[in-house]
Amino acid sequence: MSKRIGIIVGSLRENSFNQMIANTIPELLDSAQYELISIANLPLYNADLDLGDGPDTVKHYREAIQKTDGILIISPEYNSGIPGVLKNALDWASTPTKTAVLIHKPAGVIGATPGAKGTILSQQQIRQTLDATQSYVMPAQKLYISQITDKIDLTTQKLTDATTRKYVQRYVQTFLQWIDQVNLLKE
What we know:
Helix content: 25-40%
Largest sheet: 6 strands, parallel
Number of strands: 8
Number of domains: 1
Shape: globular
Low-confidence stretches: none
């Protein structure tokens, strides 16, 4: 049975480079099923709204994560950190505290940026947040994609650089193995 991978993109921009990475993943490795989990319509986190299942958009978002075997977060870096919209989405997925959908969920983090340094600081903050939610973040494996504008095709909205495509493919393969390791821990 193939694994079901949820992909959360930490950018809402129409021509998001990180969305282009997400668009490319299914064609790089077809041994899993992929589902884009949108964070565009989530309200700002407010504990006053977090009653029962929460607002409908939150309920559907949490259900989408729950149905996956693992989540890949693909995110830019804004002002040396995590995009606010992504932090908000992770906050919604971290409650209710004892039954949150991120508890023991395998997670991986990828990031792309036009700059030369990649998304190092953003990924550190994303990992820190995922650790706090008790997610099982894939250790040691990091994928920082710099100078992304030279590696994508705006027409197809996909990653075209052959070397970077190999890195992304290898990362996703390793992530699928990570899910298997996490499942052994749960038994």
